[in-house]
Protein 1
Amino acid sequence: MSAAKSATASRHVVTDWNPEDEASWDSRLAWRTLAISTYSMILAFCVWFLVSAIAPKLASIGFHLTKGQLYWLTAMPGLSGGIIRLVYMFLPPVIGTRRMVAWSSLLYIIPMFGWFFAVQNPNTGYGVLLALAIACGIGGGTFSGYMPSTGYFFPKRLSGTALGIQAGIGNLGMSVIQLVGPVLMTSGLFGITWIAPQHTSGGDLWVHNAAIFFVPWSILAAVLAFVYLKDVPVKANFREQIDIFGNPNTWLMTLLYVMTFGLFSGFSAQFGLLINNTYGATSRFAGMEGLPAGATYAFLGPLIASIVRVAWGPLCDRFGGAIWTFVSGVGVAGTLVWAALFLNPSGPDQFPGFLWAMLAFFFFSGIGNAGTFKQMPMIMPKRQAGGAIGFTAAIASFGPFFVGVALSSMAASTWFWICAVYAAVCAVICWIQYARPRAPFPG
């Protein structure tokens, strides 16, 4: 019995499902699931990086926060997102794709409404802002459920393409919120113009718009999931799923994914503040003409890495993911060393050198993000691969937290050198274990 026919046997569950067998694989269902869950994931990343879009504007609208407090605000979604991912990694084979995507889409609304009201009053306590930043972690947390779930729907030959599309386009949510957020803040939205703007030296701002704009789109995502998504018969309880920790590849791939996505998401979250504090209005060059604004460039890193992640999916399917992960490790190490050379500038004219180094870093991290997710379905059984994808994604999502804490406690150049050494070590591990000729686990 085909998957399409068996779908009629149960309203929300496909009972006969084997993606490796064309006779029992419904490609239309697979691609529809990918489309809806990816749409929801874009919104998820908008929520996860909402604080990084709002934080650079808080001082302008009357909030009196230190540089350290701002770094901590943008770091907290990374901390909570990582913890939530440790829960979500177990959900796909427990509650299924349909309910997971639908209810997650509705949960995104909670931090959106919270920030919508909080930024309207500059007397809102820092504790409240921290709590709302933590709540934004739900956007990052769902990734560890969505990606393994999508892996269940596609054969191995298409895993690189499918996971690359979902992760890459989903990651665009980082750029969407950082690019669209500042635009939304410059004018009143239709229907809520009754909320007065906050007056600043640079003009009026409607900072709350960046939060409320995405609420109806999240409701739409939930409706689409409830109506059109189905579950596949991949079931396992918690005890069965923890067998991934006995596989050494789980731990090695976690190291590699932290090198790619962990550093990428961490530096993406802090990119705007890093520019402001090194070259912009809060740097030692404050008061000079023509200084760069972090909000102007913050969207570029996530945009580049996300597009590269999508583009490299088919290349990973063709050549394998391991070689591209190795290329990523070498590139990430080199570009972070390059960027570190511009973190103690003698003048703002050195900003282009720093910017190009960071954009190159985001390019190579995008390659690695695609490579690692192609590797795991190739070197591990399907259910284990799904669990490993969820776990590695959970650990890597702590990137924004650890990068934020590091930048608030040590010189930025020191942290960049530490990350460069880590990336170099990861490149060596990838070459020996996965990428070299006759490697133990080619993928």
Note: The radius of gyration is 22 Å.
Protein 2
Amino acid sequence: MPVTEQSVVIARPASEVWDFISDAKNWPSWEASSLECEQITDGEPEVGTRWRGINRILGRQFEWVTEYTEYQPVNLATSKSVDGKINFTATTRLEEVDGGTLFTYRIDSESGLGGVFGKVADPIVNKVYSRMVRASLDNLADLLTTDR
């Protein structure tokens, strides 16, 4: 199972980072592959909440729907794909550290992100996606420390 995991320290309290990342409409502003993202269930996020989105990796778009399987405000959220071409689990974790909040973003992909391109492409696509995630986390840190 291919795994992409990256972390960044954001010079903000965990509660502020959590408020921003737990709002689906904010994801396209910082996550480089995200074209659209919205919560499709009513109410505050919790276990069972669903998000829908469209991402683009290496010029290919794919739609997805995820459902939270774990949700601990200001600490941890795990969602699993329930619809789409790629089966994946996404985990966001926050931890208070000196200088702010350590934000870790992890994607576990069942068949590899290359599945939309073909299994041979998995290592290339995963490497490119890992770089995109790294850039996304740097974008998030810049956005949350500059605009607030």
Note: Residues 122-146 form the longest helix (25 residues).
Protein 3
Amino acid sequence: MTMRILIVNKFLYLRGGDCVHSLNLKQLLRNAGHDVCFYAMSYSQNIVCEENKYFAEEISFSAKDLQGKIKAASRIIWGIGVVQNFKKLLEEFQPDVVHLNNIHSYLSPIVAKLAYQRGVKVIWTLHDYKLICPSYSCLCKGNTCEACFTDKKHVVLRKCMKNSFPASILAWGEAMNWNKNKLSLWTNSFICPSQFMAEKMQQGGYPASKLQVISNFIGEEQVQYIINTPNPIREEAYAYIGRLSQEKGVESLLKAASRLPYKLYIAGSGPLEADLKKKYTANNIIFLGHLGIMDTIELLKKISFTVIPAIWYENNPLSVIESLCCGTPVLGRNIGGIPELIETSSFNRLFTQDEELPSLITKMFNTVVSANRDELSTAALQRFSGEHYYQKWLEVVGKE
């Protein structure tokens, strides 16, 4: 049955996992014969599409003028600047399904309410922990924290949002207004990309009946590039691919790398980039900056393995999925949804403490040489295929 599906995400360009997922989902659903359109916040780097005229007005959280700050705060708490145009798009497009992704702050959960009020089925893919943790990450001063699962005031008491009292109050107000009772009412199903995420959502008070686990998938364009790009001779090198930010734990990897002789590629950008480049200047540590999708695949095909040193509850990281699909084993921290992704092969390994990294990195180089890369890649491409995701997605949409 052909459906009309409205995909909602705060941005529509290749800036992170939520955007990659939204764009891949659009292509997947269109290839399956469905009519698909987007809703996002207006932004200069967004892809151009016909429905741009309906997008919410751009806001900035770095605005220095009072009017800009008020506008940003009003978007967070009440969804100001979203309602009118979203209603127009719902009226014109007449979707059967509204599929939400990352919508807090730059957009608003009010879109779920508006779709629900029109009798449209609402599906919501969760890319982080915002619905149970006002600061998204379940981190407080560098340590995992679940205090807000049961009482949101802790975000203020602990200044969890950017270590700022005003920002934490704003996050608390957002969480109190868009609370679990409202969001559970307006949403038919929450798609949790990991079982870990589903369990945490239950801890946070969301009904198990509305939580469906479907792992993220790899886009068809990426699949074709992986299949059709020749496999080079693997370098005696490893890589970190991701955002250079505190929750990703990348400095723990750099400390280990500075003690080892192996070449480490760091692919990504973020708030720690400049400081890390100054601090870690060894010849065997190479900072590549942000890489596009195809350059990332080429890097993954030439290295021995990747490392995921995250200190937060990683949900279902695309960096792990891409690595496995390229036949490249993964050394990942035993946290969040990472174990669910990498416990399928004896060539992947988990670690718990930073002190383990130097010896485990050395062991990885000694063991992955015997890995059958084609076999690893074939198994992962099947496991994370768009077709597999689509069949699960149809089951979720068909519920009720």
Note: The CA atoms of residues 61 and 72 lie 6 Å apart.
